[in-house]
Amino acid sequence: xxxxxxxxxxxxxxxxxxxxxxxxxxxxxxxxxxxxxxxxxxxxxxxxxxxxxxxxxxxxxxxxxxxxxxxxxxxxxxxxxxxxxxxxxxxxxxxxxxxxx
Length: 101
Hints:
Elements: H1 3-54, H2 58-74, H3 78-100
């Protein structure tokens, strides 16, 4: 082996080392990008889960509607309530008038 060949061999090996370092940087960049995408997807899924936990499910909504309709059946209708209020205030007014006279 001649000295000239040794120098060329050394340069060739250093070139390979540089190429491998560049490949390693590219691979690390790809890994970091993939991790960022996974984190973003996980965050999106987490936000969706948080939103759905706060809202009642369809079964709960229908159950609530059923209980509300049952409780409304026992209530008086609005005209009935209004009429009773008017009559009670009228009777109070008559009592006050009769006491002052």
